[in-house]
Amino acid sequence: MALVDDDRNAVEIRVVYDGPPEDGRPEDGPLGLGNGACLHALARSLGREVEARSGPTPFEWLEYTGGSFEGRQIHCQVACSPAQPAGHSRRQVLLEAADVVVFVVDTRDQARLGRGVAHVRQTVQWLRGSRRSVPVGLIVQASAPGAGGALPLEVLRAELGELAELAEPQALCIIETDPESGLGIREAFVQAVHLATERVRAQVRARTLPIGQIRDDAAPSALWLAPPHLPDLQVAKNAIWPVVEGRGMLEEVSASGLVARPTSGGDWVATGESWRAHSFAADQFADLEEGRRALLSWASEHGRCAPLLSPRTIALADTGQGAWRLWQLVRVRPSLRAWLRESAAFDVRALYARLLAAAAALGDAHSRCAGTRLEPSVDAIGVTRLGAPYIGWMPRALTPGEPAASPSLDAAGHARGESGPQLEAVVARQLARALADELAGRCVELQRKLVVLWTGRTTWEATVTSAVAATLHGQAASGASNGASGDASGDASGAAT
Asked: Is CATH 3.40.50.300 what the domain over 3-224 is classified as, yes or no?
């Protein structure tokens, strides 16, 4: 989970050293051959100190700043996955946040090598099944004492041969190391940083690289904390809404294997094929009764909005860390944006019909959500055979005395309860943004065919026409701006020479 910090002109990358739990026994300490030993060896080679967190699932990490990537300083967060079986959930969080994973395989004998290869195979398949937009980098460290007794590197290469396809588009890099002497340790780290920056480059091209601020308090950062427990069937009856239907939903969620991960803003989210979960950063309570009061307030608002909402439940769950956290769990439904994206290959008449249906659904959602805190958008409105429910997250529970909804403006600055031209203008703006993101290449064709396609049967035809025109205007303005920028840079370059 790389991050660009424009204020510091830096890029943060995350490297995780991973290995079979059996090879990372605490009694081995920095003198063993597992991933923990390799982290200590790396710290010595970089002149850094390994930091540690104690507890039921202790783990270690270090930080290092050095080198540059396209003019930005590289800040590295390097962690060692916990060896204890109880640390499985924390290990998942670390792997999900990694830009590159360094697998440490003990090659002293066939049994250790086989155990390490099995671990690599299982983890690589899990990583490749996590549906990342850009695959994570992979390195295998063949860890063995320099005094001999290790199996030849060719044996490890042969064992890992079938993983080559899973490692695409990058080759599975194998490097021989010895934690005791430091052989290959720094070389492996340099290669890890290279793979991580190549992933950053791919994320830039895919426009999926987060922009934010690198935290100075990286040690207590959510990245290094075990994720809170998600609600399950152990949740008390007075800590769930709705009570009966909610318990059935929790049974499904519990079977889905969701694992929460932190967002850059401190919230916790989890997404699966059928369910997704969310908890606001501030919705953790040290006092159980305070948490229940927040649940009751939120349940009341959910009840008022129930006819507008997609299937969901809210619950107050024990975090497993001495506190309680309030969650909302929402059944996965296709969004209006995804529905529009599907129409990219439609013929122009079918595409126009879908845009009209999307505008009508969005306008209806705005009308129905007036007087609530729900904020309809192409991402927050779903598409089902029974209508267009609100599938987005419910805003955070109100505090005592806080009004249920702003009487004049929503979060986007649009008038609440708008109708007629005002409502159509709001829908046109939202639809134009979706067109620019998903269907920009079809707008010229749509504009040319509008005279033929227009039927005059619905007011939403004018809305779609406005959205198409706004999208094309935005494209033209962006092209002119880029052209002027190119001319200016060319003039400046010429003047410099």
From this structure: yes
